[in-house]
């Protein structure tokens, strides 16, 4: 069985338990820095965004310099908004749920207007209660 180790994301500070093999694999992808799943996705998106803005089609594989630049940009971003990672994840979930709730409400009202119906197609049980997330701050 692989040894489990606690490792801290170099961008956001989130700690995770991972195998040494997985830690090595992630570090190999991100210039010897270990990034959590959220930060590694953000860095990947940053690399893709930068390659698309260079108007190259198809984008070339990222160079070590491009990876380092994207990691540094994301680390800077994380430092700007440094807070407890769990609070940031909870804030992001609140934002997603609010958007979803708004989308469901607008879909419901537009379908009501289009069908000349007075019934609401979205029940209140489908929209999460946002007050339960406020205790996470």
From TrEMBL:
<dbReference type="InterPro" id="IPR012876">
    <property type="entry name" value="DUF1677_pln"/>
</dbReference>
<feature type="region of interest" description="Disordered">
    <location>
        <begin position="99"/>
        <end position="137"/>
    </location>
</feature>
<feature type="compositionally biased region" description="Polar residues">
    <location>
        <begin position="126"/>
        <end position="137"/>
    </location>
</feature>
<protein>
    <submittedName>
        <fullName>Uncharacterized protein</fullName>
    </submittedName>
</protein>
<feature type="compositionally biased region" description="Low complexity">
    <location>
        <begin position="103"/>
        <end position="125"/>
    </location>
</feature>
<dbReference type="Pfam" id="PF07911">
    <property type="entry name" value="DUF1677"/>
</dbReference>
């Amino acid at each position: 069985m692989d040894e489990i180790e606690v490792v801290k994301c170099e961008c956001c500070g989130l700690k995770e338990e991972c195998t040494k093999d997985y830690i090595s694999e992630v570090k190999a992808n991100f210039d010897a820095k270990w990034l959590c799943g959220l930060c590694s996705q953000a860095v990947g998106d940053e690399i893709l965004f930068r390659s698309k803005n260079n108007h190259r089609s198809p984008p070339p594989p990222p160079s070590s310099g491009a990876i380092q630049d994207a990691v540094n940009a994301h680390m800077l971003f994380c430092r700007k908004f440094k807070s407890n990672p769990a609070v940031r994840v909870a804030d992001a979930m609140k934002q997603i749920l609010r958007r979803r709730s708004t989308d469901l409400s607008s879909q419901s009202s537009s379908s009501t207007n289009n069908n000349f119906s007075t019934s609401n197609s979205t029940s209140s049980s489908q929209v999460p209660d946002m007050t339960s997330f406020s205790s996470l701050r």
